[in-house]
Design brief:
Elements (H helix, E strand, L loop, with lengths): L3 E2 L2 H17 L3 E2 L8 H11 L5 H19 L5 E7 L7 H10 L3 E8 L2 H10 L6 E3 L2 E2 L2 H11 L4 E5 L9 H14 L5 E7 L4 H8 L5 H17 L8 E8 L4 E8 L3 E5 L4 E5 L4 E8 L3 H10 L2 E7 L6 E8 L8
Parallel strand pairs: 1-6, 2-13, 3-4, 3-7, 4-5, 4-6, 7-8
Antiparallel strand pairs: 8-15, 9-10, 10-13, 11-12, 14-15
Helix pairs in contact: 2-9, 3-4, 6-7
The site of S-adenosylmethionine (SAM) has 20 residues, from α2 and β4.
Length: 329
């Protein structure tokens, strides 16, 4: 099925503007959402298969062990399942199959900024008698607004893979507030949160010995070369990932291994790098159950249940839009 495209031209323009601003800012910084061009989406699939990348494995364990209970919480026999940043959908498939098993008719709207990710998803998930798949290429919120225009059925929103950890504290609250405003009382959202854990385990996952995470980060420079006529030499940058215990977040940067000026044709100018200067690329915040409950409460949701697997370390938290609440922020 052909995907619905939301604002493709706007996305190309946003990439251009954000790269320019990000390379001019101090410190230099580019949003991790730009990791996911076609190449980046395929490298991310490789990451999810690495033994060091525990979040995918732990979330899959939650679904395999708790799928019956998760699906039992769905209040309607026909529902719109809207997945924000769906990726290749291989974990979601477990829940969708369970919905089918428990006789729930599903209109599945996977939303992703990457069309390639949705192509991969369609290899894993296809329409059937009780499941209709409607892919949407776009940003989280514009994609959700489009789905809400297309259908008024009760919503069960999925936000998996600890994608929520990529937002800083303020962005996270405004994101959840917008989500709450777009949904109706009784709609539900299942969010995957990576919990705080041993720093050594975190660092292995975000800086693996075989260099797949490094390749993923360096691909952003290659994307700038491909789409904006950049002249980055990826071999003169290296990946650095570290845990910041004061923020409670893994962070990743690319560091310039020498002083250099890099021309980007699309901007008709160059960007100067001092030796070991960083481009900040990603935050992956880690959470505690108390922080999660506090966040839900502040943003107009009621925590219905936390689902964990036997290994622990990761939680899928099920929230419901509360009655008569406008969020507190
Ligand atoms: C870390 S991956 C997780 C994929 C999948 N949810 C999982 O759990 O394996 C993040 C996904 O979100 C998508 N994404 C990132 N930022 C986005 C945004 N602002 N709007 C829509 N999709 C986004 C990426 O293209 C990517 O497929």
């Amino acid at each position: 099925m052909e995907p619905t495209l939301v604002e493709k031209k706007d996305q190309d323009l946003a990439f251009k503007v954000d790269v320019f601003k990000g390379l001019r800012s101090i410190p230099k910084s580019i949003s991790s959402k730009y990791f996911y061009d076609d190449e980046g989406s395929l490298i991310f699939q490789e990451i999810t298969q690495m033994k060091e990348y525990y979040p995918t494995r732990l979330e899959m364990e939650v679904f395999e062990q708790r799928k019956y209970d998760i699906v039992r919480c769905m209040a309607s026999s026909e529902v719109d399942v809207v997945e924000l940043g769906a990726g290749d959908g291989h974990k979601t498939k477990v829940l969708l199959e369970q919905m089918n098993e428990q006789d729930i008719k599903v209109n599945f709207y996977p939303i992703d900024i990457s069309e390639k990710a949705l192509d991969e998803l369609l290899k894993n998930v296809s329409s059937g008698e009780k499941l209709k798949v409607h892919p949407v290429v776009g940003e989280y919120m514009s994609g959700l607004a489009k789905v809400c225009e297309m259908s008024k059925k009760p919503k069960f929103v999925l936000f998996l893979g600890s994608n929520i950890g990529n937002f800083g504290p303020g962005e996270r609250v405004s994101f959840l507030n917008s989500l709450q405003k777009n949904l109706n009382v009784g709609d539900m959202i299942l969010i995957g949160f990576d919990l705080k854990k041993d720093v050594r385990k975190l660092v292995q996952a975000y800086d693996d010995p075989s260099g797949v995470t490094a390749k993923f980060n360096l691909n952003l420079l290659k994307r700038i070369n491909r789409e904006l006529g950049g002249h980055f030499d990826p071999d003169s940058f290296y990946h650095h990932a570290f845990y910041n215990p004061l923020k409670g977040a893994m962070e990743s940067c690319l560091l310039s291994s020498k002083e250099q000026d890099v021309v980007v044709d699309e901007f008709g100018t160059s960007f100067h790098f001092e030796p070991y200067e960083a481009i900040h690329l990603e935050h992956s915040y880690k959470f505690t159950l108390n922080e999660i409950e506090d966040m839900a409460q502040k943003c107009g949701f009621r925590v219905n249940q936390h689902f964990q697997g036997t290994s622990g370390g990761y939680v899928n938290s099920l929230w419901e839009v509360r009655k008569g609440v406008t969020s507190l922020h």
